[in-house]
């Protein structure tokens, strides 16, 4: 099943009107940190596009309609995300407005969204393997669903993480690129199986919920990870130790191979 633009597009889009001025656009750049915006009419139909480059050397009172680009590349929400990515690559655009059949703006898709889709797409296989393993070992049926979990409720199954990788996960979370975590839910407990760096990053950033693949198991079985967390005394994310000044094993191997 192909991934569609609508699955990853941003629906709340900052826009400008043709009667807005360069001054308005500059204020919007400062407010949002974005460098380009769709221009829409009163019916939310896309009539142009403006970028920070278009604002250079222009009078603050210049109307957006006088400097906006009218030759537009747009995406439709039902498009395959790969096709939208190819359009962005060929045209050099980092974003595409997403419009409906009446040319009304319904979202925007960016290079970051495409990257995020590639990061996230690997997880279903990992989750399916874990699900199958639990079912074979314990002879039970499990249920997998996608949802949000509160970071404060997570019980870690890993006692240490690496500071260098944590920095990368913090950067990803800030940009909305973090892949879903994987948890096992037994009664009211959530055991964190994959995503310890992401969860600690979320805690540091004050992010209270994360997207997750949730494997629900029956209450009448005892999982190996339950014995593990009891042995290590792990009860919450606060029990995870951050190892400083020691590179993640993958980084260490990479540098060794380059030597």
UniProtKB/TrEMBL annotation:
Assigned keywords, A-Z: CBS domain, Oxidoreductase
Residue span, CBS domain: 9-67, 68-124
Annotated EC: 1.1.1.205
NAD among keywords: no
Keyword Oxidoreductase set for record: yes
Source taxon at top rank: Archaea
MF (Gene Ontology): IMP dehydrogenase activity
Name the record gives this protein: Putative transcriptional regulator
Classification lineage: Archaea, Methanobacteriati, Methanobacteriota, Archaeoglobi, Archaeoglobales
